[in-house]
Amino acid sequence: MKKSLVTTAVLILTAYLNGQTLLEYSIPRWFKNKPAAACITFDDNYPTQFSLALQELKARGIPATFFVCTNSGSYPINWDSVVSAYNTGYEIGSHTVTHPNLRNYVPGNLTAIEDELRNSRDSIRKHLPDEKCISIAWPYGEGGTSNAKDTVIRNIAKRYYVAGRNAGSNPNGYENYNWFTISDRFFHDRYLRVGANIMAPTTTTFNIKTWITNAINNRGWCNFLYHGIETGGSSSFITPVDSFRMQMDTLLTFASSLWITCFGNANRYHQESNTASLNILSEDTVKWVLQLTDAMEDSIFDLPVTLRIRKPAWAIDSIKQGNTLITHITETDTIQFDAVPDGGSIEIYKSLTSIAHPVTLSTGPVMTVSPNPLHQTSTITVTTDKSNAIRVELYDLTGIKIREIINSSAPQNPITIYFERQELKSGIYLLKLTNGSHTSTQRLIIQ
Q1: Which of 115, 147, 160, 442 is 20 to 30 A from 331, comparing alpha carbons?
Q2: Distance (Å, rounded) from C-alpha 47 to C-alpha 303?
């Protein structure tokens, strides 16, 4: 039986400075350490989405994403309604320009696909200058499946979007959203075909509870796809407004266990958190200075992620990132707070009592990898104060061992290892260092 490095809850990582073990940390699967995420989404611009559903959402403080067609005779857009929704905090995503069957353009008219994807995004940005428009919902689901033509469509979509929602396929457990072994820069492809539950007149409160409970039990992601509310479109997809109210009230009964957010934010958080790492820049009697980085494009991926660090022996006075004070939660053995990857250094200030009684930190081996992310070759350096054997192993994110990099009973100090990617696909891996009784892990990103 293989022992996994990844528990069902979180992956524990360790940060070092000058041979001292300063902190252990984890980045939860979802924001605020919620067990699961849920997103409310709408397709096709139906007027009742804005006149009825939006009012119910506002009354309950529920975020949502409206996927709009920007110039379709069958799905006419009311820009005043769209702008008003955006100005009150709702995400506006693309549903193409004209709601076509995109597969009809493969392979003979790929330019038409690009026009649909690019022009819809540009039109939304023109009317909403602050909307990044990073998300798309696929008309008729075409573009969001494993169909060969859909793969062609997504290869074009990657130029414009980082998140895409299918027209069905239902939500999957969180583990099914670990797509980091896919040979695809920044792992976009699978994020462009996320499943959803299609809402219908027959959808019951029991259905809602079952889908949400499954998402929570799997630490998963539950997406709801609405079309017409009360009226609009096919009768097979119209949700009565009274049913919509009950469904939203049911959703809120799970709020303590759900991160209820817009579709683009769930997608961005997932990509940020799974490529982020925390490093220590300095430590003195006054504060720690930390650096949180990720492998994503900062102009798009600028959401805070939740960090959980093991509670130090000294009390924390305050936490800042840049000039912003960060609220933190103190639990029995953990400190939790939110910070933006690549958003500036994080300063954790010690209380005056702690400064008066400084703590002597334990020492341990240090493993550094440069460059990280790597393309072909990186150098792994291990420095230790122990005479024990050193073993460095490479694992995937499911905890399966891929290869042993070094196992030396009489290592030099420091020991330098040249690591080549060889057959490894792009993605995120774990380096495990064992030195005597000490074990630690570090993310390795291969691009």
Answers
A1: 442
A2: 31
> 444 Cβ partners below 8 Å, 6+ apart?
369, 372, 374, 378, 394, 428, 429, 430, 431
Q: Which DSSP state fits 365?
A: -
Q: Cβ(268)–Cβ(163) under 8 Å?
A: yes
Give the model confidence (pLDDT) of 349-394 as tens digits.
987 654 444 444 444 677 888 888 788 888 888 887 666 788 898 8
13-27+276-356 fold: Immunoglobulin-like (2.60.40)
| Rounded Cα distance, 89 and 91, in Å | 7
What is the secondary structure of 73-108 as a DSSP string?
SSS---HHHHHHHHHTT-EEEE--SS---GGGGTTT
pLDDT above 70 coverage of the chain, percent: 86
Contact 417, 409 (CB under 8 A): no
What is the distance between the alpha carbons of residues 328 and 321, in angstroms, rounded to a whole number? Answer: 12
Of residues 198, 102, 196, the one with CA closest to residue 157: 102
**Buried (b) or exposed (e) across 332-346, using 16+ Cβ within 10 A?**
eeebbbbbbbbbeeb
* DSSP-assigned letter for residue 128: -
Range scoring the smallest mean pLDDT among 113-122, 185-194, 206-215: 185-194
Q: Decide whether 13-27+276-356 matches 366-446 in CATH topology.
A: yes
The answer to whether 295 touches 301, Cβ cutoff 8 Å, is no
pLDDT digits (tens, 9 = 90+) for 145-156: 989 999 999 999
State the pLDDT at residue 18.
Answer: 54
Answer whether CATH 2.60.40.10 is correct for domain 366-446: yes
For the chain, the helix, strand and coil percentages under 3-state DSSP, each to the nearest 5 = 25, 35, 40
Q: How far apart are the first and last CA of the chain?
A: 31
Q: Residue 10 burial (CB < 10 Å; 0-12/13-18/19+)?
A: middle
- Tell me which architecture the domain covering 33-270 has in CATH: Alpha-Beta Barrel (3.20)
Structure tokens of 107? 């392979």
According to DSSP, residue 53 is labeled I
CB under 8 Å to 217, separation ≥6 — which residues? Answer: none
Tokens linked to 148: 């060969």
Question: Which residues are CB-contacts of 5 (< 8 A; sequence separation ≥ 6)?
Answer: 11, 395, 399, 430, 432, 441
Domain boundaries, the chain: 13-27+276-356, 33-270, 366-446
Confidence of residue 441 (pLDDT cuts 50, 70, 90): confident
Q: What average pLDDT score do residues 76-105 get?
A: 98
